[in-house]
Amino acid sequence: MAGSTVLGMGHYVPPRTVTNDDLAVLMETTDEWITQRTGIKERHWIEGDVGASELAEHASREALAEAGLTAADIDLVLFATLSPDLNFPGSGCLLQARLGIPGVPAMDIRNQCTGFLYGLKTADAYIRSGMARNVLVVGSEVHSTGLDISTRGRDVAVLFGDGAGAAVVGAASDDSRVIDTELHADGRFAEILMVEVPASRLNPRLTVEMMEAGRHYPKMDGRSVFKHACERLPEVIQSILQRNGYTLADVDVMVPHQANLRINEMVARQLGFPADKVVHNIQRYGNTTAASIPIALHEAVQQGRIQKGQLVLLAGFGAGLTWGASLVRW
Q1: CATH code: domain of residue 28
Q2: Is 93 a catalytic residue?
Q3: Which domain holds residue 210?
Q4: How much is the pTM?
Q5: pLDDT digits 0-9 by tens, 225-276
Q6: Given 44, 257, 260, 264, which residue is catalytic?
């Protein structure tokens, strides 16, 4: 019951950079329009046939090296993604094969933007219970191949990037630890952010007519998502702090999910939390969904913004709807 800690992290984005000006060639949009509404200036998209498990392998190997471990030390793989390589089997199994650790259990987590937090909570529970020593928690996404890159789809297409982030979670041996993670979901609002088809609830699951109507592309009620995020994130942040005996003044760094710069700025203002303590990298990566928190967290560590002993707050909100927060003593 000693608890868990982050032993090492890694992240990876594909080399191809797509700027707002690049998108303006493909659809009716401008750099100014995208920047004002989202804060995004560029994102990374894959080239050729590359799946989420391939991006995840790069991030995972870096995390293992940082932790001073090998893949053979991993007891469980938790893979958070909304863009799996295949409909089935899960990308966790594909990553396990890439890492060369047959027999090790692998599980996919389908909680979208909150997926990494769900994975962190699950890893912590496995380690606290003694069921695992070292758990690999990964968030990885390939969005670019599933976007409507046209004027019809621009409201969503400009938001998303490809990338992966990973953490090796193991038993805590000092004060550095995952203190708590609080998770929530509300499926009543599933349809405000979703991909409708192909779907097993429809027969046939996919038709030419569905594709011509663009029903296989992500759709979002942006105003509703913004409203829910700005309500739920402050709630869960205050809740997890209160139940663990902390206040916002105790938090050294906040690493929110990178969905929209305006959401994160609004949440910080509502809380009265100092803007200079909030990590933002959406300007360079766009929304990488399950990968966004681990990418931002690892970059903040690499940049020296997060130091040992500091109290770090992670927070995410996304499709489902799902949301949550984690407190980590680094």
Answers
A1: 3.40.47.10
A2: no
A3: 178-329
A4: 0.97
A5: 999 999 999 999 999 999 999 999 999 999 999 999 999 999 999 999 999 9
A6: 257
